[in-house]
Amino acid sequence: MAARIVALANQKGGVGKTTTAINLAASLAMMEKMVLLVDFDPQGHSTTGLGFPKPDHRAGSYALMKGAPVQALTLSTEVPMLQVVPAGKDLAQLEFELFELPQLQELRKALEPVRDTYDYILIDSPPALGMITLNALTAADEVILPMPCEFFALDGLAELTETIRRIQGGPNPALKLGGILLTMAEERTNLGAAVAGEVRQAFPGKVFQTTIPRNIRLAEAPSHGKPVAFYDLKSKGAQAYLSLAREWLGLEIPAAQKELA
Ligand SMILES: Nc1ncnc2c1ncn2[C@@H]1O[C@H](COP(=O)(O)OP(=O)(O)O)[C@@H](O)[C@H]1O
Ligand SMILES: [Mg+2]
Questions:
Q1: What are φ and ψ of residue 158, in 5° steps?
Q2: Which end of the chain is more exposed for a tag (fewer CB within 10 A), N or C?
Q3: Is 221 touching ligand 1 by the criterion CB < 6 Å?
Q4: Ligand 1 neighbour 22 (Cβ under 6 A)
C-alpha cells in the first residue's frame, strides 16, 4: 500500500513542528510502521535531533530536489523502522531556485519511487509559507498543524488555512487537514485551557484529542540525538507522542492524555 504522506506546517517558528516530526515519526515506527522522515527545513533540526550532522549539498533533501534518487539519501536511525532524509542550509537556495521557475510538484515526484516502501512519510517544513513549504503541501496527502497553547496561538492561522485552501484549489486538490495539534500545554493553567477551548471551538472536530504538554525531556532529547521515547520513555512528552500516534492510527488513547490543558 502507498505511504500516507504527511506535512507538518506552520509559518511560525518554535511551535513544535520539528519536535512533532521527530517524535510522531519515532512513535509510529515503534508501532511497527515503516516511516521516512524528510527534513525539508534548511535549519536541519530534524536531522541533528536524530543525531546526524547536517549534510552537504550532495547528501540531503537539496540533492533530492536536484534529482538524486531518494533511496540513496535515506539514513537509518536508532529506531529500527525509522529512516530520515537529512537537510542542511543549502536547502535554502531552493527557495530562490523554485521561485524563479515555479515548481510545486518536485517533492511529490521525488518521493514517488519510495511510496510503496513506507507506511508513512512525514515532512518537516520551515517556518515560512515560501516555495519549500508549498512543495511540502503539494507532496502531502494531509497536513498537521502544530500550535502552542498560547494567547496568540490563533494568530496567523487564517493565513495558513488560506494557503491550504489555495493548494487544494490548485496543485493538490486531495490535500486534507489531518488535524491541529495543541503543543506546549502547561498543565492545569487557565490560559492553556482557555486557548485549547478556543481552538477546539474554531475548528470543531479538527483538533487532536491528544495534547502535547510542555515537558523538559522533549526539549532535551534533540541534544542527545534521540527521539524522546529513546531518551526517557516514561516522560510525559514521550507518552503524549505515543498517544498521538495511537490516535492518528485510529486506536484507543489513554484517558490521561486527553485534553491535558
Ligand atoms: N512540548 C514541548 N515541551 C517543551 N519544549 C518543547 C516542546 N515542544 C517543542 N519544544 C522545544 O521548543 C523549541 C521549538 O520547538 P520546535 O519543535 O523546534 O519548533 P518548530 O520546528 O516549529 O520551530 C525547541 O527547542 C523544542 O525542543
Ligand atoms: Mg523546526
A1: -60, -40
A2: N
A3: no
A4: no
Ligand 1 geometric centre to CA of 8 (Å): 13
Residue position matching grid coordinates 503539494:
138
- Domains along the sequence of the chain with CATH: 4-257 (3.40.50.300)
Q: Which amino acid is at 113?
A: P
pTM, 2 dp: 0.96
Q: What's the longest Cα–Cα distance across the chain? A: 50
Residue nearest to atom 16 of ligand 1 (CA): 16
Per-residue pLDDT of the chain (261 residues; tens, 9 = 90+): 799 999 999 999 999 999 999 999 999 999 999 999 999 999 999 999 999 999 999 999 999 999 999 999 999 999 999 999 999 999 999 988 987 777 899 999 999 999 999 999 999 999 999 999 999 999 999 999 999 988 787 888 888 999 999 999 999 999 999 999 999 998 778 888 888 888 999 899 999 999 999 999 999 999 999 999 999 999 999 999 999 999 999 987 877 776 554
Candidate of 10, 15, 19, 150 to mutate for ligand 1, largest count of ligand atoms within 8 Å of Cβ: 19
**What is the whole-number distance in angstroms between the Cα of residue 184 and the centre of ligand 2?**
14
Distance CA 2, CA 145 (A): 23
Tell me the sheet residues that pair with 5: 121
DSSP 79: S
- Quick one: angle between helices 17-30 and 236-248, nearest 10? 70
Give Cα separations from 212 to 149, 186, 196, 260 (angstroms).
Answer: 9, 9, 11, 8
* Distance from residue 220's CA to the centre of ligand 1 (Å): 10
